[in-house]
Design brief:
single chain, metalloprotease, protease, mainly alpha, 10 helices, about 65% helix, two-stranded antiparallel ribbon
Length: about 270
Amino acid sequence: MRLNLRFIIAIIVAAVSLFGYYFNTSKNEVTGETQHVNMSAEQEIALGLQAAPEMAAQYGGESPDARATAAVQQVGQKIIASTKAGKTPYKFQFHLLADDQTINAFALPGGQVFITQGLLKNLTSEAQLAGVLAHEIGHVVGRHSAAQVAKSNLTQGLAGAATIASYDPNSPGSSVAKAAVAAAIAKVISLRFGRNDELEADKLAVDFTPQAGYDPRAMIQVMKMLEQQGGRSSTPEFLSTHPDPGNRIGELQKEIAAEFPQGVPAGLKE
């Protein structure tokens, strides 16, 4: 009876997780994709605002360099004003962080976008800055964080169901081992989706930067710089938080060629 009850509970937990994931869908107005998300844009905005101070504190807080901060905000807002990103409900804010040793940029759900002083000082043009910010904007409008939360809830629910079903009161350690395996599988799944998110964010950046007047090929220069930095010392944190989906430079070149089959127009800021 106990065995049957465990399996019944496990099936219920798994079913609730699966139904919660597959029946919570929303069409993304920017990408045109139907996504599995379980939070609204307003909830994403609230989550991002709540997490922003803590995330900034991890990188020394906001930069005291008012001029550099203004430049970051100006480029970011120019991209928002020129693209579909500005037609979304997200409230974009751009932050320059004081950490001048860490090379990183990231975005929180809802429109909080961050770049470290360490990354900014390694960029050599406004177009490169635009490429970095456009990539992070792509993560926001692509709703990648919301989608990752939904996937995490699904995998955690299924892992919980597996743990319940496999629990052996005569061998408690077996459930721990199986739960660890389930968690590892969940991590692999999340990493794969993260790489797909990177490709989509790059693609959106290729769309956004020319609309704001910037040459999208500057993004390739950024990637080359990151690779060089990785060869000199430890891997830049940007490459750790933004998994490489393979030959990222090659993928960017393909996207740019597809976007501009006749060549990138003249007059864009390089």
